[in-house]
Amino acid sequence: MSARWLTYPLLLVVVGVFATSLLLAFAAAMIWPTLPSLDVLTDYRPKVPLRIYSADGKLIGEFGEERRSVVSFKEVPKPLVNAILAAEDERYFQHRGVDYVGMARAAFANFSQIGPRQGASTITMQVARNFFLTREKTLTRKINEILLAFKIETNLSKQQILELYINQIYLGQRAYGFASAAHIYYGKRLDQLSLAETAMLAGLPKAPSSFNPVANPARAKLRQRYVLRRMREMNVISAQQQADADQQPLTIKNELNEFPIKAEYVAEMVRQAMYERYKEDAYSLGLRVHTTLLTQHQDAANAALRAGVLAYDQRHGYRGPEAYAELPANATAEALEEVLQEYADSDDISVAVVTEASPRHIKAYRRGEWVDITDAGLRFASQFLGDRVNANQRIRRGAIIRLQSADRKRWSITQLPVVEGALVSADPRDGAIRALAGGFDFARSQYNHVTQALRQPGSSFKPFVYSAALEKGFTAASVINDEPLTFSAAQTGGELWEPKNYDGTYDGPMTMRQALVRSKNLVSIRIIQAIGPRYAQDYITRFGFDPKQHPPYLTMALGAGNATPLQMLGGYSVFANGGYRVKPYVIQRIEDGRGTVLFEQPAKRARDNAERVLDERNAFVMTSMMRDVVRYGTAAAAMRLGRGDLAGKTGTTNDFLDAWFAGYNAELVAVAWVGFDQPKTLGRNETGGSVALPIWIRYMGAVLKGAKEVPLETPQGVVSAGGEVYFQEFGPRASDSAGDNGAEAAQPAPSAPDNVRNQLF
Predict the structure, then answer these.
(1) In terms of pTM, does the model score above 0.85?
(2) Among this protein's residues, is 163 annotated catalytic?
(3) Does residue 112 have an active-site annotation?
(4) What is the CATH number of domain 69-247?
(5) Tens-digit pLDDT profile for residues 698-718
């Protein structure tokens, strides 16, 4: 009787299992034909972000929702494979998509509540879920997942499946795939990871948010230890390796968006260009854009611009704390970190909050450490210390200040500048931009002053007017009177105009070369009177300037029109390369995710297939004159570089609103500008020579160090006589002078032929 009672339950179990199996088989038979095609796996095309590189292969920018780097299975180090299997699927190479042993073990552990709840998803099932399914917890979804796992295992090899997993899985911080995560968390390639770092990354797929070493370092450490323990249990590492890895500190990159080169303005320019061409696909096709930037040049440009802008700012004194915060009596580091969350550091300029202040000592907290400022570190802001200063201006407890240090030991008070600046350089032989710093700090202002800031170029525009005069028959030896001029309201169509030289002095008759060297405004006005403002307006289009931005008035002689630093770069390149129009460009090549070249900048090198827009004799004489500007004139400070092949021109606008310097040799042109976004005076005597030129000097000194000088070759048709150079058909003349009205004695040369001008548009 008892045996019969045992038989019935057993029979019921067998029938139940059989019925369930039939039901599952029926469900599988019904679902299998509806399973999605595996084309997305066999022809894997992940969403790979737009990446932008320098000419020497350094990453300067990345744009896309998913940060991903795709690697082949053979590129994945063995320790990482072992760590992933230890963390996610120990029996991966034994099962065929579904691990029945693992499922039984997980079911028993979960039913008996022994240890933490366990899952039973294999790596193949995770691939199925990540590519085809949602994460909803339903029986239908689970059946689909299991069937897809079988289908995947039938059609792909184990290595192919694992490769898909390694490239597709989400690992936090917008990182998809282990190669991307290695770069984002550690700034390394997969083959550079230590065992400790490998175990940390392998622990992320289970819960990228909970085990994120940035957001939850303590939980991340626990997960890492679990992975290391599992690796030891699998005998893929030794006990000593486990112990060593466990003791290794977790060092995560401080700045998760950091790139080897700071070129955010260029990266944004390229992003905009790619979006115009590819729209939203630009952020997922894996496009790789190679720019013309050179690391050495970009680093030098950033350093030069920041140093120059900060030097100007320091000359004009401390403005006081940025803000004040209410601090609790016993402020902890955690509380102070919260205060600082509202403020961003600017490269080497750190934000800090003052906790103690006296005229001789300040204690402050900057992110991650307490610092003391004493002695020379207080000098810049000394007038804002002490009880005699108003409380709303004084450096006191709760004050938000800025700090800078050369060695991270001795800190000095500084401040973020209000003034802005820009620096751009290019190879004049083809227009390839080598460096572009569009402002002091991209994080603070995305306004690109190189490409967007239309400002008056001042005297840095005079070379284009002088070049027009040479075309009209003037020579570098033409004598022009430097004496005051007055223009009535009837002549100007507005108000009485009495232009003046910068220094308020007048030196009478002088050669055109001397006038450019000394930047004489009255001579420039007489020159444009002689050649005609409309001719000058037409002539400057040869250099790429928009005539609408330079109205045909006498003020054009003083650079009263508008130009961007990029336009000035293009204009000066014509002088530097001997008379050819080359358009500055920054995108050299675009490749798709498979390395196929989609676009490549066509070669337009000067003297090859670039358009000649200026007689090479004209370019030679202008360069000769601008070399004297550097040797003896307003840019003489550049002689500290110890080079004889540099030419250029300073520029200072009316009321000291803008400061410029544009200069070059035959292989590099650079333009520096400094001014306020809302134009206001830089201050008395803050000229192109004192504000912009030091930036240019620092940059050129860094990138030309050790480079051979480039000689200035005299072209055919140029003769020397009496220490001056002339176009051969003119030569020196006894009557080579201009009277008070600036009229040239010789017959002017004809203007540029119409067909030349038309080719410029």
Answers:
(1) no
(2) no
(3) no
(4) 1.10.3810.10
(5) 999 999 999 999 999 999 999
